[in-house]
Amino acid sequence: MKNTIALVPFALMAASLSALAQDLRFTGIATTADGREIYEERHSVDGTCQEGVFRPRQHGVTYFKPDADESFARKGLEYEASALRPSVDFVQPTFNEEMKITYPAPDTLVIDWQTPGGDSERFEVTYPANTVVDAGFDNFVRQNWQSVVVGEPVEFRFLGPTRGEHYGFVLERVENDRVNADHVVQIRPTGMVLRFLVDPIVLGYNDAGALSDYLGLTNIRKNQDENYTAHIRYSVDTYPDCELTP
Asked: What number of other Cβ atoms are within 10 A of residue 108's Cβ?
């Protein structure tokens, strides 16, 4: 009898934890400036609801050419340590490209990059607490949602993985005639030199805090030497049972 009684609270606790598990599913269609479809992204984000707000844990992305049944690239992200700095495992077999970003020690990340040219690059990078990596920008926007809504700029560091360095950026409200969204912001470099070399990325969000538009340079290769610049329009398939923004 004692064993039975002891197991009941554990079973209730397990059921409660299971009920907190949530997911976010959304799909993006990437097009060129003239409206030609390039590829489709399918996103699956598993997470939990913590104090009424969604917290991602794992994020999988698969990429498909129009009308194709098999993916041509994939990305896996893990948000165990930080929602802003996921570990990354990106593979683009068409170009024999692979990139991994890991965190072997506090305040240190390692980038292992197999380039399309067949070379291997490895960078060890130390970073401050306001550094954002890869798709962590989406969570960064939501963590700063009140600033987004009222139009206050927020500065941060953003990782340039192929250069093995992070750079100063700012998140700020912007107007753009190509993005029709409830909230339109951009992330742009703050350094004078980088501002001439890197175009801003324009982002659209709906009132719920879900990404609706991405306009800028992507991680999908157009050829051996350059990546696509695209307008990606997103639609949400499944929302979690809690809020996306605090």
From this structure: 12
